[in-house]
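Hi F.,

I've been meaning to write this up properly since the lab meeting, where we talked about keeping a consistent format for the predictions we share between groups. The idea is simple: the sequence comes first, exactly as it goes in, then the structure tokens exactly as they come out, then a line or two of notes. No screenshots and no reformatting. I'm using this chain as the first example so we have something concrete to point to.
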Amino acid sequence: MYLRSKGFDGVRIWPNLTGPVQLMRSDGSLRPDGLSTLKFILDRARDERLVVDVSFTAEHVAGLDAARLRDAIVATTGELRGYENILFDIRTSGTSTGRSASRSPPVTWRVFALGIKSVDARRIVTASNSSENTAEETAAFVSQVGVDVAAYHDPRTSHFFDPSWIKLNVDALKASGRLGRICRSRYRRDTRRFRPASARTTIASR
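Output, unedited:
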């Protein structure tokens, strides 16, 4: 696989991204073609020993509200119970239930996480926070929601790769008592397409 040949250990996918094949319908049910496509990708990733971050969004599916998104995620959890190489992100940079989701109370996301755990207690769950929040706020949020990983998209600034800046954020995330993930990709644009210019993932231990 291309990603493994380039030295990557994992990949992040958005199965609801706008396109010909989406995972979820607006009523919270799963599309058979979307589910089979997702499983095909996960099978290939498992063959290559790649970790897959399955990130759920609602804003790409017209009419999909928080309650139905939860139903769909719980159904997906059951369908993917046999995959040990994946984790779920239920709050993609704070936008999973629409663009105002970053202001949703922690109890909303706790209900999502509990629903997943009720079906598959082993599934690793995270809920990303955007750069509108600080690393300290992210740690507090994670403690309230009870997810397994503190995921933070820190601001893209001139010191984005500075070791002291990374350590500052990592130390803040450790306060949650969970594993921490700082992740963000940068892009440059040419006349044909967006291409990844650099990507970074930093894992903070408990």
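Notes:
Helices lie at 2-5, 32-47, 66-79, 106-119, 135-145, 163-174.
Confidence is low (pLDDT under 50) at residues 95-102, 185-206.

If this format works for you, I'll send the rest the same way.

G.
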